[in-house]
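Per reviewer request, we include the raw input and output of the structure prediction for the construct analysed in the revised manuscript.
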Amino acid sequence: MDARYYFIDFEALVTGEIINEVPESASADNKPDGSSRTYDGSYIWYIDHQGNVQGLYAFLPSSAGFQSGVYP
């Protein structure tokens, strides 16, 4: 199974009218193939094994979640 299966496809949520816009905090890792949108946020958004939304700081060497003072 592709690991990206758990990444949140914000464009699908916008198209389905679940949310109004793609969050500015979404990194390029959340960008679906074929998208023309710019994703330059600092966080990878995904669904964990329990169905919870999680954020991961997108820049190495960090493997931590939310970083104080880093937005988007």
